[in-house]
Amino acid sequence: MDTIYGKEALVVFSGGQDSTTCLYWALSHFSKVHTVTFGYGQKHSKEIECAKKIAEKAGVSFRYMDMSFIASLGRNSLTDTSIKMDEAVPDGSFPNTFVPGRNLFFLSAAAVYAREIGVSHLVTGVSQTDFSGYPDCRDQFIKSLNVTLNLAMESQFVIHTPLMWIDKAQTWELADSLGVLELVRTETLTCYNGIQGDGCGHCPACRLRMEGLQKYLSKRQSRCSR
Amino acid sequence: MDTIYGKEALVVFSGGQDSTTCLYWALSHFSKVHTVTFGYGQKHSKEIECAKKIAEKAGVSFRYMDMSFIASLGRNSLTDTSIKMDEAVPDGSFPNTFVPGRNLFFLSAAAVYAREIGVSHLVTGVSQTDFSGYPDCRDQFIKSLNVTLNLAMESQFVIHTPLMWIDKAQTWELADSLGVLELVRTETLTCYNGIQGDGCGHCPACRLRMEGLQKYLSKRQSRCSR
Fold first, then answer.
1. Which pTM was predicted?
2. Which residues have CB under 8 Å from B136's CB, separation 6+?
3. Substitution target from A79, A80, A112, A146 for chain B, most B beta carbons within 10 A
């Protein structure tokens, strides 16, 4: 693909499957790419190490920002080890892995940082398709936030969401088309239990990831055998 | 005034003239009032002490939150002592007291906290009239943020801005009508140089505050002598 935007972009980067795919998407669309990784009191700081390694390999700048104040705002199972991670979502509620306002803070901090380094294009791996009940992954939230950020700083940010309308299988397909399927498969960390690559296999994130991979690989297989 | 809303509210509270006036406005409009004060690497932590004392006197809950990560996002003269505070605003730019995204982060954190304590009404002292060139004090930003917060957390927040369309003289008038003119005059801290009450008298904040007070007092005087 050509660099259709031809400008610099900042990728909100966690070292997981989605944001790593977005990083390589950005590399194929922008002339220069930066990454920013947020710490927010995760139990698995290994995520941050993974992110740094992937950024180094991709040859892009890596900036880490401590946003651990987020953990003090609300109770959730990702940042509070006293809460058991729960797959069952109470009726009319969010999964207890929901960190209220997380993407709001991440994208806002990314925008302030982007403005400092003279970048107006932001890339994030949120997806409405697999949004797991998180309202801050929906397209309407992202678009509203884009307007709010522009008004807050009198700027012209453009938030790109390459995964918004695709599912996990299609995200694997995108990674494959970018030539990084194996890299994403082996070097990223998505697992809630902190195991790199294929992960623990049990947690919701691992199951979603593995189901998507199997679906894509069997589609590719049937395509090749035609 | 009656408590026209009859519900609980959270006031974004700095211990300055504006937010203290808002605190008493909230006390006259809501059945219960909470406050939240943010630290963001201010040179003057005395602000926080002032805020706490005023909240105690008003009999409302006081919550302090450390948001010092904001200081690391951008350079400005309020949080970085290596930059001289500058009154002159470069053409087409912001005053260098501008902390990019400050109100964005404060109101977002306030909303997450409000949701935790079951409160949906937020009160902030931003004013478009005396906005000093800060885009994140304008009405259009606040309204856009209100929608963004609702979408981020699937909630129904209502942001109240009692000072949005009034100037400093009218803010003093509001404080007077709420019976707290002397309290606001003597116990709040607005001065950039950290001096409580009437302040240093030289910095832009002191001059704006004093001009407003004199304007209101002479208006009141002429009203009384009629």
1. 0.86
2. A151, A152, A153, B101, B102, B103, B104, B126
3. A112
Cα-to-chain-centroid distance, residue B56: 17
| pLDDT on residue A98 | 58
DSSP tag of A62: E
A122 contacts on B by Cβ (under 8 Å)? none
Beta bridge partners of B33: B9
In B, what residues contact A, Cβ < 8 A?
65-67, 69, 72-75, 94, 100-101, 103-105, 108-109, 111-113, 115-116, 135-136, 138, 140-141, 144-145, 147-149, 151-154
Domain spanning A8-168 has what CATH number? 3.40.50.620
Distance from CA of A221 to the nearest CA of B (A): 39
Chain segment A121-162, per-residue pLDDT in tens: 999 999 998 656 789 999 999 999 999 999 999 999 999 999
Give the residue extent of every domain in chain B.
Answer: 8-224
The class (CATH top level) of B8-224 is: alpha beta
Residue of A nearest to B67 (CA): A69
Q: Can you give the C-alpha Rg of chain A in angstroms?
A: 17
Could you tell me which chain A residue has the CA closest to the CA of B38?
A: A69
* Tokens at B140, concatenated: 């259009």
Task: Give residue-wise pLDDT tens across range A38-97.
Answer: 987 765 678 899 999 999 999 999 999 888 878 777 654 444 444 444 444 444 444 555
Q: What is the ipTM of this complex?
A: 0.85
What pLDDT is attached to residue A68? 80
